[in-house]
UniProtKB/TrEMBL annotation:
Alphabetical list of Pfam families matching this protein: DoxX
Phylogenetic classification of the source organism: Bacteria, Pseudomonadati, Pseudomonadota, Betaproteobacteria, Burkholderiales
Protein name stated in the entry: Inner membrane protein YphA
Tagged with keyword Secreted: no
Native source species: Paraburkholderia metrosideri
Chain's gene name: yphA_2
Family as reported in the entry's similarity comment: Belongs to the DoxX family.
Keyword Flavoprotein annotated: no
Length: 143
């Protein structure tokens, strides 16, 4: 990173991604039984394992994004998770109602776009405005 503005932009990107996952993770916690039922209805295998993992990935992953801790490995996990939820949760190819299918297509590609944002975060890292950035030694040359 060579420009001071980069860390601020990366911080905003982390927050924008985190809000979606924090909100969704908290909603899963508050309506856990309903979430488990939804996973069953979608035919997700091993729901008793998948439900707590999904809830933790979203809630804890969102929190870690906000503070910027271990962002590079977290970004890879979140990218894989987001693609998996696109395939399992927004399977437009199995929907026959045209209006619902259109909605599922939008959500599917939205998830793929979010995964792309996570891959960019993997490349850039958390930026200086983060726990990761605070732990990185800085050279005196401004590099």
């Amino acid at each position: 990173m060579t420009r001071p503005v980069d860390s601020g932009i990366i911080f905003i990107a982390r927050i924008a991604l985190a809000v979606l996952f924090l909100w969704s993770g908290v909603m899963k916690l508050l309506g856990y039984a309903g979430f488990v039922g939804y996973l069953h209805s979608k035919g997700v295998p091993f729901v008793q394992i998948a439900a707590p993992i999904a809830t933790a990935v979203e809630a804890l992953g969102g929190l870690l994004l906000v503070v910027g801790f271990k962002v590079r490995p977290l970004a890879l996990i979140m990218a894989v998770y987001t693609v998996a939820t696109a395939v399992l949760g927004h399977d437009f190819w199995n929907v026959v109602d045209p209006a619902l299918q259109r909605d599922m297509v939008i959500h599917f590609w939205k998830n793929i776009g979010i995964a792309g944002g996570f891959l960019l975060l993997f490349v850039t890292g958390a930026g200086r405005m983060s726990v990761d950035g605070a732990r990185t030694p800085r050279s005196g040359l401004g590099l």
